[in-house]
Amino acid sequence: MHIQVLIMLMFVFFRNTDQPESPLIFAHQSKWQQQIMKTYGSDICLIDATYKTTVYDMPLFFLCVLTNVGYVNVASFLLSDERQQSIESGLRQIAK
Q1: How far from 36 is each of 1, 5, 21, 60, 86, CA to CA, in Å?
Q2: Is 92 exposed, middle or buried (0-12, 13-18, 19+ CB in 10 A)?
């Protein structure tokens, strides 16, 4: 399996080039967000998404955790489609 990965700063773009139907996934998580997720994300995480808010038909997902000061966004990812497999792939990239 050949997976194309481009890392720029804290951004990751990837697409499996062996499968043309594979989704394009853009994931972002800063070092600070990783630390907050590690500290507060072991019990429960919340995922929220925006739909049809731009001319581009790509849903944007936010991963949030409850901290001592309220909910904090600990990651975000943009997908080319809304399939369960694509969402799982985005979450797997953030979990790495």
Answers
A1: 33, 25, 34, 20, 24
A2: exposed
Mean pLDDT in order along the chain per 10 residues (96 residues):
42 56 80 92 85 77 92 90 86 84
d(CA 19, CA 47): 27
Which helix (H) or strand (E) segment is 91 a member of? Answer: helix 84-95
Do residues 58 and 78 make contact, with C-beta atoms less than 8 angstroms apart? Answer: yes
Please tell me the distance from the alpha carbon of residue 34 to that of residue 29, in angstroms, as a whole number. Answer: 7
pTM: predicted TM-score of the whole model, two decimal places: 0.72
Distance CA 22, CA 86 (A): 8
